[in-house]
Write a structure and sequence with these properties.
The structure holds three protein chains of three kinds.
Chain A (H helix, E strand, L loop, with lengths): L9 E2 L2 E2 L4 E6 L5 H8 L1 H10 L1 E5 L12 E5 L5 H13 L2 E5 L1 H5 L12 H9 L20 E3 L6 H13 L11 H6 L24 H4 L16 H10 L4 H10 L16
Parallel strand pairs in A: 3-4, 3-5, 5-6, 6-7
Antiparallel strand pairs in A: 1-2
Chain B lengths: L1 E6 L1 H13 L1 E10 L5 E8 L24 E10 L2 E6 L7 E6 L1 H14 L7 H7 L2 E6 L23 E5 L3 E6 L2 H7 L9 H16 L10 H7 L4 H9 L5 H4 L7 E7 L5 E8 L20 H20 L9 H5 L6 H9 L5
Parallel strand pairs in B: 2-6, 6-7, 7-8
Antiparallel strand pairs in B: 1-9, 2-3, 4-5, 4-11, 8-9, 10-11
Chain C lengths: L9 H4 L17 E10 L4 E8 L2 H6 L7 E6 L3 E6 L9 E7 L3 H6 L7 E8 L12 E7 L3 H13 L7 E7 L11 H6 L3 E6 L9 E2 L2 H9 L4 H5 L1 E6 L2 H13 L7 E4 L21 H4 L2 E3 H6 L5
Helix pairs in contact in C: 6-8
Classes of the chains: A alpha/beta, B alpha/beta, C alpha/beta.
């Protein structure tokens, strides 16, 4: 996994600083990190921009000397919170990697139940484990950058790292997925009678799901200025039940801030 | 203007002769919606039978062939502290458009005014536009078509030939010598007086079918007067700011430019991406200030550009009345209703 | 005849000698230009002198005060900047740049000798020749002095063509003052320099207050002959030029003789991308310099 300790890179004659980066995971499927390793075509170029000092999925060496920490997963136990605080201390830039880290992700679905003991019993039965309500990273520590998506889009990670190295600002699209979906000339899923959160979800995934005939589930969270209230009304008018709509809006936790979602389950 | 008339089966022959030597783009069916109505799109075709000349409308215009959603304006080779810029207009072959409706032809004519005939013509558009051979075809007006109000229900120029369905035969209007020469490959005749009567009858039938209307009387002035009207706020509350209206619009050309370095650091590119004035960052400037932070101010700007600014500059509106934006808008924001509400003051 | 369409090559179709505004190949063409010097003006702003590399292109590159150009660093970005130097120098411009985005941040890292790309000049300028024989008020708030420096240079070089010339320049504090090293020369060229800061520091001995206070002192008690024969160039934030122009209007200075420069984010500079539109007016084609009467008629300008 280690790239050659080559001479420092330059762009237009300007020497680029090669930051030491580390990858960490908390409660998650580790699929986001897998995305990064999967990108074989550009992996070597990517690795020549940074020095990876910690990446459990890909290497055995470990170091606490890093500047950028990519953290995947949400915080579900107290010991996780402590470990995250340590990472925060070591890192200059802490990057929340993926929907779990950014919003709690699928894991936060359990937060809609009021009684955590009931959840434990339902899920773990006779083998209870220590588990607390799910928190996104930013509920525990300061987060500098967010890379959205479940999973993340590897091209976006590369772009963000490249921008950090070049000193360019990180411009994640502010507009919704519809913009990319139309550019991909997909048939609108609403025309096919399918629900889709594309009109209110932040773009940047290149409308990954709609390209494959699946409605958007909002894994990247809300677009800036997302009109969630009216979107909900539209979906109702199109005949989708409250349950169908909330299931989508709830799924990754990105829309939790909206008043339209302040409803909890019966337990 | 030169007119001919030919048997319907001859059109297939014309297609096959043209398709043998050229790339052809035409309307095809790409699926069915949940009410089982066909969904059409423009795409490259090689089989005449896949072209649906009786198509209602396409969801998207043929825009990607003349205003691609993403397009590299230039690429750079980077070596040490030096760079070399390469410019490519991204057009390398002519294209035949087989079956464009008058609204879409008029859309091109409108785009020509700003992208081809004005100062600083845009070579990326010009290169593609100069390589289009257009066969227009008459349409059946749909409930959402308000092209008649916008003066775009018939195309007077901007095509090579235009065919009208007269039952068993096609009546063809020939505008260019290229089209004239192509037509020598099939059997055509001089139309007779009875064909003229048939044509006029068919045109009158079609005219009866227009239902949607927009009152454009004094519209530019009214948009100015009602700039602070509350109706904009009401439409803004519905708008999803998703940019779909601009993406499905055959005349929306606004864009943004982004420069990116390739990950190998050896090359870079400058990319033009169609943008929509309804998106939150459309009027954002360096340093973060946003001149139109509210949805309603952006929606208003869209109408203002189409129905006032363009009128001021070119004495016609930048809307052809194809109705695609209203049909695609999930929030149901439709041009005839918006304009009626602005004209009607506060009530909606 | 074989029914095959011929590819139309728009490049070869172009007549050789075209005006830049109609020349297709000029659309994306960038002059290669060298950063010949950089000079830090304040904590935030640096003045860059940039010269077109090719001598023939250098000779042809001319602009009028108030116009802007697009500056590009490949892969990093392209952005509009008002030209801040004398229009009598061809092929070389000075740009006063504040670190505010990708391009300007990267620019702060490159050194003398770096090659950048420039396109332009674009937009309208101040009608300097029309102002001959008249009094001139050059009014700048904050960074507004940057586009004003070009007409100031024009006035210096053609001083005999103008009557009374006043610069009214206001900033937040003395540290924000730009081009301080030039003030003496301006005064020696018989330009009245009126500087006012909102907040003084211990070393400041000049006026303290609002720019409009100073302007009032200059305008009050003059005769109609002065007001009717005065042009004003006003640069600064919209709130500022609105106040200033309203004040000038009260003294019966015609609105067609007041010029302002609007700042918007152009992506193309050629009336295509629509990003700089105010209402439905292209700032890059019809502006950035507008007379105040036109600005009053633009929706969303102020």
């Amino acid at each position: 996994m280690k790239a050659k300790e080559s001479e420092s890179k330059t762009y237009l004659g300007i020497p680029l600083y090669r930051p030491k980066v580390a990858f960490f995971e908390f409660s998650s499927c580790e699929g986001c990190q897998l995305q990064i390793i999967n990108n074989e075509n550009t992996l070597l170029d990517f690795l020549s921009l940074v020095e990876v000092v910690n990446f459990r999925e890909a290497m055995t060496e470990k170091s606490d000397d890093y500047e950028i920490a990519f953290v995947e997963g949400s915080i579900t136990r107290n010991d996780e919170a402590e470990r995250l605080k340590k990472i925060r201390k070591n890192a200059k830039i802490l990057v929340a990697l993926g929907s779990c880290a950014c919003f709690g992700g699928v894991n936060q679905l359990k937060n809609r139940f009021n009684n955590i003991e009931w959840v434990k019993k339902q899920v773990y039965g006779k083998h209870p484990i220590d588990t607390a309500p799910v928190r996104a990273l930013e509920e525990v520590v300061n987060v500098d950058l967010r890379i959205y998506g479940c999973p993340i889009k590897k091209e976006e990670v590369e772009k963000i790292v490249l921008h950090v190295v070049l000193g360019k600002s990180i411009d994640i699209p502010k507009y919704p997925v519809c913009m990319e979906c139309k550019a991909n000339e997909n048939i609108c899923l609403f025309d096919l009678g399918e629900p889709c959160l594309g009109p209110i979800t932040r773009a940047g995934c290149d409308s990954w799901c709609p390209n494959n005939n699946a409605g958007c589930w909002g894994c990247r969270g809300p677009a800036e200025d997302a009109n969630v209230g009216y979107m909900k009304k539209i979906m109702k008018e199109k005949g989708f039940s409250e349950k169908t709509i909330l299931e989508r809006l709830d799924c990754f936790g990105g829309f939790a801030q909206f008043p339209e979602l302040k409803k909890k389950g019966k337990h | 203007m030169i007119f001919r008339i030919f048997e319907k089966k001859e059109l297939k022959n014309l297609f096959e002769i043209l398709a043998a030597h050229n790339k052809v783009v035409g309307p095809v069916e790409i699926g069915k919606d949940k009410q089982c109505n066909p969904i059409y799109a423009f795409t490259e075709v090689s089989d005449f039978n896949s072209i649906k000349l009786d198509y209602t409308t396409t969801k998207l215009p043929a825009k990607r062939y003349f205003l691609p959603f993403h397009e590299d304006l230039s690429t750079f080779r980077i070596k040490d502290n030096n760079w070399q810029k390469t410019i490519d207009y991204n057009a390398d072959r002519p294209l035949i458009f087989f079956g464009l409706h008058p609204c879409d032809i008029n859309a091109l004519n409108k785009l020509d005014k700003v992208l081809l005939h004005s100062v600083f013509p845009m070579p990326y558009y010009v290169a593609k536009r100069k390589n289009m051979f257009i066969i227009g075809i008459d349409c059946v007006p749909q409930p959402f078509c308000f092209c008649r109000s916008m003066g775009s229900d018939t195309a007077l120029h901007g095509f090579d030939m235009f065919i009208t369905n007269l039952g068993t035969r096609y009546f063809v209007e020939i505008l260019t010598d290229t089209a004239y020469n192509f037509l020598k490959n099939i059997k055509t005749e001089e139309p007779k007086e009875k064909d003229h009567i048939l044509y006029m009858k068919s045109a009158a039938e079609r005219n009866k079918k227009f239902t949607a209307k927009v009152d454009t009387t004094d519209l530019a002035k009214i948009l100015d007067m009602e700039f602070q009207s509350d109706v904009w706020k009401q439409w803004g509350d519905k708008c999803l700011a998703c940019g779909t209206c601009a993406n499905v619009c055959p005349t929306c050309y606004c864009y943004g430019v982004e420069e990116t370095v390739d990950i190998n650091l050896k090359s870079a590119r400058k990319t033009k991406m169609l943008h929509s004035c309804n998106l939150i960052d459309f009027a954002e400037v360096a340093g973060g200030h946003n001149f139109r932070p509210e949805r309603h101010s952006r929606l208003k700007y869209r109408y203002y550009h189409k129905h006032r600014g363009f009128v001021e500059a070119f004495e016609e509106s930048l809307c052809v009345g194809c109705g695609r934006c209203g049909e695609s808008c999930l929030a149901g924001i439709k041009v005839p209703e918006v304009i009626a509400s602005v004209r009607g003051g506060k009530k909606r | 005849m074989k029914p095959e369409l011929k590819f139309v090559d728009i490049i070869s179709q172009q007549p050789k000698m075209q005006k830049r505004k109609n020349d297709l190949s000029s659309f994306e063409y960038t002059y290669r230009a060298e950063i010949t010097s950089m000079y830090q003006l304040t904590d935030m702003e640096t003045l860059y002198r940039i010269q077109i590399v090719n001598p023939e292109e250098r000779r042809r590159f001319a602009f009028i005060p108030g116009q802007f150009l697009m500056l590009e660093i490949p892969g990093i970005g392209e952005a509009p900047f008002s030209i801040s130097s004398s229009p009598s120098i061809h092929g070389e411009v000075e740009l006063c740049i504040r670190k505010a985005g990708n391009l300007t941040n990267f620019l702060s890292k490159v050194g003398r000798g770096a090659i950048v790309g420039i396109r332009g000049p674009f937009g309208t300028g101040f009608p300097m020749e029309e102002m001959h024989g008249q009094n001139i008020l050059l009014i700048a708030g904050g960074l507004g002095l940057v586009p004003l420096r070009s007409p100031i240079a024009y006035v210096q070089e053609n001083r005999s063509h103008f009557r009374e010339v006043n610069i009214v320049y206001g900033t937040k504090s003395p540290q924000h003052l730009l081009f301080t090293y030039q003030y003496d020369v301006w005064i020696k060229d018989d330009i009245n320099l009126n500087i006012i800061v909102e907040k003084a520091d211990p070393s400041w001995i000049g006026s303290v207050g609002m720019l409009t206070d100073t302007l009032m002192k200059i305008l009050e008690g003059r005769d109609n002959e002065f007001y009717h024969n005065t042009y004003a160039i006003v640069c600064g934030p919209p709130v500022m030029f609105k106040f200033v122009c309203n004040m000038l209007n009260k003294f019966n200075i015609p609105m067609q003789k007041m010029f302002v420069s609007l700042e918007r984010r152009m992506h193309c500079g050629m009336g295509k991308c629509c990003r700089c539109n105010v209402g439905s007016t292209y700032t890059c084609l019809k502006g950035p310099v507008f007379d105040y009467w036109t600005v009053m008629n633009l929706k969303e300008a102020i």
